[in-house]
Design brief:
- A hairpin with a 5-residue loop joins strand 26 and strand 27.
- The longest helix has 38 residues.
- Helix 4 runs antiparallel to helix 5.
- With 460 residues, this protein is α+β, with helices and mostly antiparallel strands.
- The strands form 7 sheets. The protein has a 4-stranded antiparallel sheet with strand order 1-28-27-26, with no helix packed on it. Strands 2-3-4-5 form a 4-stranded antiparallel sheet, with no helix packed on it.
- This is Transducin beta-like protein 2.
């Protein structure tokens, strides 16, 4: 047999090897079919049950992992909320907190008659509060709904019979009237919607009323200001050339529109009507120059004779704007103070010009304008960034907005400043009736201040 193999030719030997290889391949293929391997090659779809099971396991594991992260985040959020509930903000000078809004409060405004405060929120409502109720435990409100939108800013009309808002989505102005309904009850109803003129966001609104005419102002985050009549017709478009606007407002006297932005000044313009009540023009009145960097914010006092400004340069300034600007007389710089806030700040000036409040982040500092000193500081006033601060027309209260609440503080710095101012006037008083009146006012202010500092802050 060995001899037979040895005598085969090379071609015959190669053929034998091929036959043996094919036979072995056939045997292996048969075994694969028997155990379920290689079915794909035969045109039959493979059994994906095991692969799908593995994918489901991986997907379930990822889902469980994500759920754990979500649960952890939710737990942290709830813990913070519980912490805020347990350690609610409190301060000896806090009179009360207004808590009817269900989402963040974005702005508020006081009526000129000193009776009401209007606040707007992301919850699509505007609420009217009675200032005389601030000392009460219960705070009644009148609710106005903002349909299909929410208000970013709110301003009372000078006659307190209406208010305007800037709309977040609509990016326009809407007028609401306050009055009696058909059933005799007081209510709020929308009156006029202004036409949208630009895609730039509104950063300031206001209503001006003079002896000759009325107007509404809207300012945008570029350099444009629009002046409208009260029916919604555009009267004038102004370009302030300030790179961008940080803040804009109408003065309480109604004569001026002012703006600040990237440049280190505040531009004050006069809105002019003729004797027949027809709009005439908007012209330059004065510029508040002196800061070395961008002006964040400004505020007029009640009679528009003082303006307070706060800047990125770390200073705040108090100006005398009771000047003959028609004769190109510049406003007087009365005082320059310093602040340690490093980001965008808000400023408020009391009605008499004796007190300045500056808010940044969650904190508020209150300054006496007679000496420039910081006499009060409130930290962590809200759980979200402060969006607005302001003094009521009487100067008794300082109000802040942030998160869902408004905080109402006693303005003790204002009481102290008023006492100091009246004591100075008493020394120079020339008539006995004037001396008697000042002495009585000083006594009343001291009594009220002692009462505030001596009473316990109501539990919030």
């Amino acid at each position: 047999m060995d001899g037979d193999v040895a005598t085969k030719s090379p071609k015959e030997q190669l053929a034998s090897v091929i036959i043996i290889t094919l036979a072995m391949g056939a045997v292996v293929g048969l075994l694969m079919l028997m155990f379920g391997y290689g079915t794909g090659f035969l045109g039959k779809k493979p059994d994906d049950s095991e692969e799908e099971e593995e994918e489901n396991k991986d997907s379930k594991a990822k889902s469980n992992q994500l759920s754990k992260k979500q649960l952890k985040a939710l737990a942290v959020k709830e813990a913070k909320q519980q912490a805020h509930k347990k350690v609610a903000f409190n301060h000896p000078l806090l009179l009360t907190s207004l808590k009817e809004h269900s989402q963040n409060v974005l702005d508020f405004d006081f009526s000129m008659n000193g009776k009401y405060l209007a606040s707007c929120s992301e919850d699509r409502t505007v609420r009217l509060w009675s200032i005389k109720d601030f000392t009460e435990k219960q705070h009644k409100t009148m609710r106005g709904n903002v349909e299909y939108d929410h208000a970013t800013q709110v301003k009372f009309s000078p006659d307190c019979k209406a208010y305007i808002v800037s709309l977040a989505v609509g990016n326009s102005i809407r007028v609401y009237k306050i009055g009696k309904k058909e059933d005799g009850s007081m209510g709020i109803s929308p009156a006029v919607d202004f036409e949208k003129k630009t895609d730039h966001d509104i950063i300031g609104i206001g209503i001006g009323s003079t002896s000759h005419g009325n107007y509404i102002m809207s300012a945008y985050n570029n350099t444009i200001i629009h002046i409208w009549d009260t029916k919604g017709d555009l009267l004038e478009t102004i370009d302030t050339h300030q790179m961008n606007h940080n803040h804009a407002a109408v003065s309480p006297c109604g004569r001026f529109v002012a703006s600040c932005g990237f440049t280190p000044d505040v531009k004050v313009m006069e809105v002019v009507f003729d004797k027949s009540g027809n709009f005439k023009e908007v012209k330059r009145a004065m510029d508040l120059k002196g800061h070395k960097a961008s002006v964040y914010s400004f505020c007029f006092n009640l009679d528009s004779t003082r303006v307070a400004t706060v800047s990125k340069d770390g200073t705040w300034k108090l100006w005398d704007t009771n000047v003959e600007y028609h004769k190109n007389q510049d406003p007087y710089l009365l005082y320059t103070g310093s602040h340690n806030f490093t980001i965008h700040s808000l400023i408020a000036l009391s009605c008499d010009g004796h007190t300045v409040a500056i808010a940044c982040g969650l904190s508020v500092s209150v300054y006496n304008t007679q000496n420039g000193e910081e006499e009060e500081r409130f930290n962590d006033v809200h759980t979200a960034e402060i969006t607005k601060i302001g003094f009521d027309p009487s100067g008794r209260y300082l109000v802040t907005a942030g998160d869902k609440h408004l905080r109402v503080f006693h303005n003790v710095v204002g009481y102290r400043a008023n006492i100091t101012d009246m004591e100075k006037k008493l020394k120079t008083a020339t008539s006995q009736p004037m001396r008697d009146r000042l002495e009585m006012q000083i006594t009343q202010a001291r009594t009220k201040l002692e009462e505030i500092l001596g009473e316990k802050s109501p539990e919030q």
